[in-house]
Amino acid sequence: MIESNSIGANNATPQGGKCATPLFHNKTTSSSTEQEILEKIDDLAEKVSAVYESAEKTRKYFKWTLILTLIFFVLPLVAILAILPSLMSGITDLYGSI
To answer: Distance between CA 41 and CA 44 in Å, rounded?
Structure first.
């Protein structure tokens, strides 16, 4: 009688008895490998979280830089452009009467 494993009855292993794909590894070696993979995934998850936090801080920094630039540079520039004609008119009237 042919014994079949959980993967299928027609599993042929390459030379040396080791399989080419990780699905065919036996349970004794795969548990340590799975544990290593899970540890690496946890490490990567922590690193991704750190990168996300850093990206969020950078995004907030750029947002506040834009807001402060608008407040302290663009708005005064627009105000000067709005007020400048009346100032020039007043100055020319003042010196025009001399």
So the answer is: 5
